[in-house]
């Protein structure tokens, strides 16, 4: 989902194949990103515009009045089944399509207040009651709403009264849990106040120092001994973009009722929200408060709003690149034109730190983002062409929509004639914005951070609680200071999130002089060294030389070992293998185990194909079965087990999260996008 929809990728692939050889050679040889971008811009023809329009039509974010009744009725069904969280989301979907000061919107707010009451979210219930009144609640419903409002005040009073009955206290427990959670957050924030004494890094512990070498580039090192659990860094994302589920409607009267992270988290601060506020102009953006809605509108959504379906089509990386430009502003972007145009990395002396907002410290600012490597020489030419043409398509939409005022005179008096002097009819600002988007899209391939949310939930359908845990990637974010951490397959840090804030802690004691690193994804406990090295080279263009990889080099023979099918202990031998456990002494033939391995590999290939065809549930079932089978006769370090686990993780992440009941707890983790 970071990249454009598959249909656009396929179209650009065909266009790349049809380009004349001399154009490809010129594009490949260019070290000036502005010239490369203009070459992509020149390839935009009427056909590309029509293809993009067709793809965008399937991902509309416009408000559709007919959807209001549809989602309201679907919400009523879930409410009748006591699927309250699902009902709340569906009422929110109805609200997102409704017009202000409309009776239907008022009724939807009233219905959602009923759900919130049953979920014991009494404060939110009261807010929705007020919204229902503001938007013209019919007189026939005012008595019912007034009764609910009175009951809410009573429940809130009981939740703070120690003498309240046990049953009523139980019903108010979500409020108490919320208070406890907020207390934990405050304790963490008090500890974070200590992160102000580092002379090199903003919001970093004084136990860290910024180093630079020809081999590693910039990296972080422990300047003194660090204890396990110590907070090392705390950073607010420069930008974050929530990852949407890509669903298309089979016809214009059918709307999507699935519940995704986009329905359950604020699109600005990434906090959990049960009763979101919708954008006044589109049906997609949702926020936890008027404050977040206002911040988003002033920073970026005033431009992105009318481009909703375009951004969904062109992918999260494209939207993230645009949001970086919008948040930074055209003045800041213009100050770095020479760096933006250059495909070569800036040479930084070991003693040099890039100036930020606070007296020479390395900060989470736009200058730090510009200096992240775009890896132009490492990316494949076709991928660069995809990014360039995608950036050009977005720029053209910006021109045509006359939305340039927010980023500095980007608007046009007329649509550009791309076949004749394509850039001259655009504002001079576009000459800056286009290459900037191109550069940032290339940077994001290696520097984007995936925010992943793990949730425990239960379904109260038919009064039979069924607990499960699912994971999904919530957002793509950019953390310039966090990007200083190099990769290790056996990291000494752990990362967690509170909304769009990342906290880095020491996962074990770290000695003075030791490099501080985290894992970009491939971990020694999950993947063998060959697979880790392959993934890191493909995604990040380096050969990992961390301690874990160094220790494993030369011992790859153990990766193909079998284990005893009876007791899972190691096997030893040539044609005939015997168990090393004295009490077992099980014997197995190597050829039989090899045949069993071949069958398992074939099944894994089928499961991988199912995943590629978007048959996610089938893929997950098959992969879980394969993992169970493999663990019966393969060594824990066998490369196939690592592949199965990796495919299963990708399948689970692709599936997203569907909620049917009350969320019980939430843990947030992170991984680099790969």
What does this structure look like?
- One of its GO terms (cellular component) is nucleus.
- Keywords: Cytoplasm, Metal-binding, Methyltransferase, Nucleus, S-adenosyl-L-methionine, Transferase, Zinc, Zinc-finger.
- The chain is an alpha+beta fold and 674 residues long.
- Among the domains are: 6-60 and 238-447, no CATH class; 65-119 and 121-171, Serine Threonine Protein Phosphatase 5, Tetratricopeptide repeat (Alpha Horseshoe), CATH 1.25.40.10; 562-634, no CATH class.
- Helix content is 47%, strand content 13%.
- The chain has 25 helices and 16 strands.
- The chain has a 4-stranded mixed β-sheet with strand order 1-2-12-9, with no helix packed on it. Strands 4-8-7-16 form a 4-stranded antiparallel β-sheet. A 3-stranded antiparallel β-sheet has the order 3-11-10, covered by helices on one side.
- The longest helix is centred in the C-terminal third of the chain and has 23 residues, at 590-612.
- The protein starts with 5 loop residues before the first helix and ends with a strand.
- Mean pLDDT is 82; it is low at 164-181, 347-358, 408-423, 458-468, 556-560 and 656-674.
């Amino acid at each position: 989902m970071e990249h454009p929809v598959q249909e656009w990728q396929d179209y650009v692939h065909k266009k790349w194949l049809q380009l004349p050889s001399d154009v490809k050679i010129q594009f490949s040889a260019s070290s000036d990103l502005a010239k490369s971008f203009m070459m992509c811009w020149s390839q935009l023809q009427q056909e590309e515009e029509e293809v993009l329009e067709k793809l965008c039509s399937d991902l509309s974010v416009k408000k559709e009045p007919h959807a209001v009744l549809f989602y309201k009725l679907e919400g009523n069904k879930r409410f009748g089944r006591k699927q309250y969280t699902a009902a709340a989301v569906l009422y929110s979907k109805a609200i997102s399509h409704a017009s202000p000061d409309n009776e239907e919107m008022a009724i939807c707010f009233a219905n959602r207040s009923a759900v919130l009451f049953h979920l014991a979210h009494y404060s939110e219930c009261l807010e929705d009651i007020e919204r229902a009144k503001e938007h013209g609640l019919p007189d026939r419903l005012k008595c019912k709403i007034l009764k609910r409002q009175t009951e809410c005040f009573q429940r809130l009073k009981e939740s703070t009264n120690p003498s309240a009955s046990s049953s009523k206290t139980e019903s108010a427990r979500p409020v108490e849990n919320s208070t406890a959670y907020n207390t934990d957050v405050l304790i963490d924030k008090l500890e974070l106040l200590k992160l102000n004494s580092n002379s090199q890094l903003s919001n970093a512990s004084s136990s860290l120092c910024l180093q630079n070498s020809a081999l590693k580039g910039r990296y972080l090192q422990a300047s003194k001994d660090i204890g396990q659990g110590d907070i090392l860094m705390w950073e607010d994302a420069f930008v974050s973009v929530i990852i949407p589920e890509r669903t298309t409607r089979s016809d214009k009267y059918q709307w999507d009722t699935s519940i995704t992270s986009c329905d359950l988290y604020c699109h600005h601060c990434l906090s959990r929200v049960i009763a979101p506020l919708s954008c006044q102009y589109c049906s997609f953006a949702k926020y936890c408060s008027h404050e977040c809605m206002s911040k988003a509108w002033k920073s970026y959504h005033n431009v992105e709003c009318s481009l909703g379906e375009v951004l969904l089509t062109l992918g999260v990386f494209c939207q993230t690149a645009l949001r970086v430009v919008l948040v930074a502003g055209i003045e800041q972007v213009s100050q770095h034109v020479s760096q933006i145009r250059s495909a070569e990395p800036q040479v930084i002396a070991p003693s040099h730190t890039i100036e930020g907002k606070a007296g020479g410290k390395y900060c989470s600012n736009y200058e730090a983002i510009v200096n992240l490597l775009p890896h132009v020489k490492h990316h494949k030419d076709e991928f660069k062409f995809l990014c360039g043409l995608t950036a050009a398509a977005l720029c053209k939409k910006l021109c045509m929509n006359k939305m340039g005022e927010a980023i500095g005179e980007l608007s046009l008096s007329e649509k550009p004639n791309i076949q004749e002097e394509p850039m001259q009819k655009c504002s001079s600002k576009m000459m800056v914005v286009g290459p900037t988007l191109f550069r940032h899209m290339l940077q994001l391939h290696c520097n984007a951070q995936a925010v992943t949310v793990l949730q425990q939930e239960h379904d109260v359908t038919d009064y039979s609680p069924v607990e499960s845990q699912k994971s999904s990637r919530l957002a793509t974010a950019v953390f310039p200071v966090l990007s200083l951490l190099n990769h290790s397959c056996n990291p000494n840090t752990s990362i967690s999130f509170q909304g769009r804030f990342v906290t880095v802690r020491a996962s074990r004691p770290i000695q003075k002089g030791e490099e501080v690193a985290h894992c970009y994804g491939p971990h020694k406990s999950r993947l063998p060294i060959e697979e880790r090295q392959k993934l890191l080279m493909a995604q990040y263009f380096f050969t990992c030389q961390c301690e874990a990889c160094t220790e494993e080099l030369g011992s790859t023979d153990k990766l193909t070992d079998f284990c005893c099918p009876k007791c899972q202990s190691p096997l030893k031998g040539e044609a005939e293998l015997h168990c090393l456990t004295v009490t077992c002494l099980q014997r197995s033939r190597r050829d039989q185990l090899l045949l069993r391995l071949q069958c398992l590999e074939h099944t894994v290939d089928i499961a991988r194909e199912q995943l590629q065809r978007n048959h996610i549930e089938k893929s997950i079932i098959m992969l879980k079965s394969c993992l169970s089978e493999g663990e019966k006769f393969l060594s824990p370090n066998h490369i196939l087990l690592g592949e199965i686990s990796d495919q299963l993780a990708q399948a689970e992440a692709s599936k997203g999260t569907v909620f049917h009941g009350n969320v019980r707890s939430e843990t947030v983790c992170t991984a680099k996008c790969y």
